[in-house]
Specification:
By secondary structure, the chain is an alpha/beta fold. The protein is about 40% helix and about 15% strand. It folds into two domains: about 190 residues, Type I PLP-dependent aspartate aminotransferase-like (Major domain) (Aspartate Aminotransferase, domain 2), CATH 3.40.640; about 110 residues, Aspartate Aminotransferase, domain 1 (Alpha-Beta Complex). The protein has a seven-stranded mixed β-sheet with strand order 1-7-6-5-4-2-3, sandwiched between helices. It has a three-stranded antiparallel β-sheet with strand order 8-10-9.
Length: about 300
């Protein structure tokens, strides 16, 4: 195990350690914006494998098989997902893990949202679902999400001894250790009671239901119900090409710009996470602000 300066450093070092120049890395899309850049920084090629709202944004082994080549070195796996909030079931996780094991490729699994699941959905680590991955599995995590400790910059990676040793050598020259105060705070969070985490998850759950209902009330918006993290990822392809009082957005980036100007609501367009036609919204905010934002969106975009 290696303690890193935030989860993002763990992501970076994982790719730097196992990816060589010209290697392909399978990247389920939609994806967190850092993943493809970290792959490219390691000299690799991110190979997007897209799953839309009809699949609840979860890729299948069949899709991965279609994208696999002799140059494939690794697979990025993220459940619960940023940006979609999707959570792979135990069976789905097992299927992906077994497929990767059969190919002998590395799996880099980002589990930073593991404690934020809803509707009775259980988090399943791919380490448990597919133990045969043991020698080719790197787990990434941190305290930023579950414990709301973003600014403390404490993450970690767990994996085979040779991988962790190589990552530790890299980090020794890159940034050295995480500061001791932050590490003590992280230990207190990990070993302490989960009461506040449970209260926060309950608040997220309440807001999750509100944002999904509010988005699906907009004409042309299709928003699957996320079962993890704190994001909603609606499909807005039906809004593209539609005129809104003299403006006709053709991409989700143009739609996001129009929403910002007219509703004064900030959303992130799908282009940041993969294909156009989607928006990411966070419900990690107060109830009143969430209700106001949804009201503004419905006013600008039109309710059903």
């Amino acid at each position: 195990m290696l303690v890193t300066n935030g989860g993002k450093q763990a992501v970076y070092e994982a790719f730097q350690t196992v990816v060589d120049e010209g290697d392909d890395v399978l990247l389920p899309a939609p994806y967190w914006t850092t993943y493809p850049e970290a792959i490219r920084l390691a000299g690799g090629n991110p190979i997007e494998v897209f799953a839309g709202a009809d699949q609840e944004y979860k890729v299948t082994p069949e899709q991965l098989e279609a994208a696999y080549t002799e140059n494939t070195k690794a697979l990025l796996f993220c459940s619960p997902s940023n940006p979609t909030g999707s959570v792979y079931s135990d069976e789905e996780t097992k299927a992906v893990g077994e497929w990767a094991a059969s190919k002998g490729i590395f799996v880099i699994s980002d589990e930073i949202y593991q404690h934020l699941t809803y509707d009775g959905v259980e988090f399943t680590s791919i380490a448990q679902a597919a133990p045969e991955l043991h020698d080719h599995l790197i787990l990434l995590n941190g305290v930023a999400k579950t414990y709301a400790m973003t600014g403390w910059r404490v993450g970690w990676m767990v994996g085979p001894k040779d991988v962790i040793k190589a990552a530790a050598n890299l980090q020794s020259h890159l940034s050295s250790n995480v500061n001791n105060v932050a590490q003590r705070a992280a230990l207190a969070a990990l070993n302490g009671p989960m009461d506040q985490v449970s209260a926060m998850r309950e608040a997220f759950d309440r807001r999750r239901r509100v944002i999904v209902d509010g988005l699906n009330a907009i004409d042309g918006v299709v928003c699957p119900t996320p079962t993890g993290a704190f994001y909603a990822y609606p499909d807005v392809t039906a809004l593209l090409g539609r005129e809104f009082d003299g403006v006709t957005p053709q991409t989700s980036a143009e739609l996001a710009e129009m929403i910002l100007e007219r509703a004064e609501v900030a959303v992130v367009p799908g282009e940041a996470f993969g294909p156009s036609g989607y928006l990411r919204l966070s419900y990690a905010l107060g109830d009143d602000d969430l209700a106001e934002g949804l009201s503004r969106l419905q006013k600008v975009l039109g309710a059903k």
